[in-house]
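PROTEIN DATA CARD
Card holder: Ig-like domain-containing protein
Chain length: 320
Origin: Astyanax mexicanus
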Amino acid sequence: MASHSLLFLAVVFSFICSGALEEKLIRVECQPAVGVVGQTMKIHCSFISSFKEINIDLVYIFKSGPENPVFSLKNIIKTGDLRFNLPSENNPSLELASAAVADEGNYRYMIVTNRGVIEDGSFRIGVTSKYHEPTTISWPEKIEEGGSVDLYCNASGGYPAGSIQWFDNTNTDWTKSATLKTTEGEDKLVQLSSKLTFKKIDLNWVPFRCVVLNSKFVKERESTFHLKFTGVDTGSSVTVSVVLMVTGIIVVAVLMGLLFRRRRIQQGRRPSAQPILRASAVRTTLNTDEEDDENEDGNEAKAEGQIGECFRKATTEQDT
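Structure generated from the sequence above:
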């Protein structure tokens, strides 16, 4: 530590005479940098000077105090946090590998050049991290219709702290009824835990959606939450509706067919314009018509019985 301080003072004093006038004519400007946790980030800096040729001899980066540089570079020798690097020769821009939340903050940038010493350079590092896919659970796991239930949605690995929203299948927002808890891990990454409580849950509200937002209220993740109800298959309602619709179509088709056939038979019984038929032919025709009526009535009764059975099965499936 003492060696760094002595070297710093020696460098500054060595340039007081030779660069006292020129250092006012050179400065460095850096843009705010935002990186992603675990990735390499770039800190763009540039010299502001009228000099065309500027050579970098020494670099110091400070974060907490002027006597404790987090990184230094002299020629090709690096000390301190070796994740920092100057990728181009005589270019003040920096790189930081494997960015972490702990790297976030303000930095002071000192550069010793052949044109003088730049002591007032500065830049800021910001860090972000996307949340992982949320996990959802309910307590109790199996729910009774109209009973109480607690719904949980957890998302971890994000930074900065975000929020969680709740929606039902009608897109009604239940977020105001939920409670949100944020927990910071050792790596400074945030875990979001949201709890939504219902004293009386309605089957028509499912499924729910758990939406994870970042610190700028932009959606990053979403999970659909299908609840388990005791004795109820949430997908059976669709099946029952289809069965009832098909049954109704069949009923209408059968009734239309029977009506059309009866009208056709009745039209066949109209008086004939031909001469008087023999009595035996008339009796035979009458007997045949009576048998047709009996068969027709039997078919109608059978069809009605089958239709009733279809409705009973559909009703039974809906009840179960």
